[in-house]
Amino acid sequence: MEHPVVDAFVAAWDSHNADALRATLSEDAIYEVVPQGRSFGPDKVAEQVDFMHSLSSDFSMKAVSVLRDGDRYAVEWELTGVNDGPFGPLGLDPSGRTFNIRGTWIMEAENGKVRFCRAYWDFAGLLRQIGATPGGQVEWQMTAWNDELETDTPGSGN
User: Fold this and answer.
1) pTM (predicted TM-score)
2) Could you give the CA distance from residue 1 to residue 13 in angstroms, rounded to a whole number?
3) Where do the domains of the chain lie?
4) In CATH, what is the architecture of 4-122?
5) Residue 104 backbone dihedrals phi, psi, to 5 degrees
6) What is the pLDDT of residues 56-93, one digit of tens each?
7) 77-135, pLDDT tens digit by residue?
8) How far apart are CA 116 and CA 105, in angstroms?
9) Among 75, 69, 64, residue whose Cα is nearest residue 6
């Protein structure tokens, strides 16, 4: 099933095109990025595309599943790439490592445009995959989770 609003949103992200992403948003849209604790209007959403592109010049995005109820959507997505640029907010150098993270958008549309989008994504998984695991107690827990991932991931055959 096609979902024109979601399809355009995903295509804009996948093409690294901030102008195309902005064009999918209503004039008063809010884009909230929960892991960063930040919200953006249409004029600032380009910062998110630029951030992702600076972290990975080759990233790609695809929708894994879409649930729709009228003008409301739940979109599970997957983002893959190589960390070939600096992770500016944390002051980290490029690791050259490949990453694959999943996330979810909870969206509302109005007149064929996204009016609201709340993004949830695996920030800890991104850090782990690019080799930027925090130290101390957090490192111990993330290592334990990583061990679980290697042995208990559903569908992994383990």
Assistant:
1) 0.81
2) 20
3) 4-122
4) Roll (3.10)
5) -140, 140
6) 999 999 999 999 999 999 999 999 999 999 877 677 88
7) 999 999 999 877 677 889 999 999 999 999 999 999 999 999 999 888 888 899 887 65
8) 10
9) 75
